[in-house]
Write a structure and sequence with these properties.
alpha/beta, seven-stranded mixed beta sheet, about 300 residues, four-stranded antiparallel beta sheet, disordered N terminus, globular
């Protein structure tokens, strides 16, 4: 938590422009916050200062994607596979026949779910041992119109030049192909409630912080027709409230890290604090469900999901 009077503790250079619309931060309406700057033109937040490559490498570390490929304890990984299977069904239903590109494919759970549905797949990730995932960036892929779908499932926020990523996706999509994007919504009620401590802020790993309006207008400017938005399909709503509520308790409890396996935790957590955080999460669960319902009804959900057709 910070009052915004001092910068965060990762090394990097000050951001000069919005990474989404390109507006200068010297223009009117710019707001400086802790670890990010709000654009006066499109309201997108840019992580500021811009983390150096060395800082980002350290921020991800070995815990973010553990070698086992398993991140969550209890039934967490099973829930993750189920949610990815549901998303794979949606992508398979919407995208025309043809191969799908998963940009920021993580451990390959969504990719595997689409392969199980008979889709030809290619994944991209910063580092992965998955046989269908290449360790390179989208701009390194050659050709035009090769894919019928491009997926950016909670990965666009990790990219320092997100509009370039959208442009590259347009290049690789055949006319009529679809882009599928899920990102956190910094204009959400849970973002307002938890501020600098919001789980989906995730500095410095998240480099851009979008709103629904900024995302859809940016897609339209990049040659897409937005065909569907959803306040629920991007998921990760309830955990945003739960983690924030538990984090407000005394004792420095961290629910999200407590739900991860020991090898996949960013911090060391004692067995007692882990048990306390999980118990508090169980108690707060009904309240988190209620808060999730309220933010969905208000049109300010914690995450954004958009489908758009290449035209």
């Amino acid at each position: 938590m910070s009052d915004g009077t001092q910068g965060p503790d990762w090394s990097g250079k000050p951001a000069e422009r919005c990474v989404w619309c390109g507006s200068s931060f010297s223009e009117a309406g710019t707001r400086r916050l802790f670890g990010r700057t709000a654009c006066g033109s499109c309201a997108t937040l840019t992580t500021d200062p811009v983390p150096s490559p060395e800082s980002l490498e350290e921020a991800y570390g070995d815990w973010y994607w553990p070698e086992t490929g398993q991140r969550f304890s209890l039934v967490g990984d099973a829930i993750l596979r189920r949610s990815r299977a549901a998303m794979a069904s949606r992508i398979d239903e919407v995208a025309p026949a043809g191969p799908i590109l998963d940009v920021g494919a993580g451990e390959g759970t969504l990719l595997d779910a689409l392969v199980a549905r008979g889709r030809q797949m290619k994944g991209l990730e910063r580092r992965s041992d998955h046989p269908s995932i290449e360790n390179r960036e989208i701009k390194e892929l050659e050709g035009y119109g090769e894919f019928s779908g491009v997926v950016l499932w909670h990965s666009l926020e990790h990219m320092g030049q997100p509009r370039d990523i959208v442009t590259e996706a347009a290049r690789l999509l055949r006319p009529g192909g679809f882009i599928f994007i899920a990102v956190p919504n910094h204009a959400s009620l849970q973002s307002a409630a938890f501020g600098d401590d919001w789980i989906h802020l995730d500095l410095p790993r998240h480099l851009v912080h979008l709103t629904s309006d900024a995302l859809t207008s940016g897609l339209e400017e990049s040659g897409f027709e937005v065909t569907e938005t959803s306040p629920t399909r991007a998921g990760q709503l309830v955990i945003g409230w739960l983690d924030g509520m538990v984090g407000r308790l005394p004792g420095g409890l961290n629910l999200y890290q407590s739900l991860r396996r020991r090898s996949a935790r960013r911090i060391v957590i004692s067995p007692g604090k882990r048990a306390a955080a999980i118990a508090a999460g169980v108690i707060f669960f009904p309240f988190a469900l209620l808060a999730t319902g309220i933010e969905i009804a208000s049109g300010r959900p914690g995450t954004i999901y958009v489908e758009a057709r290449r035209v």
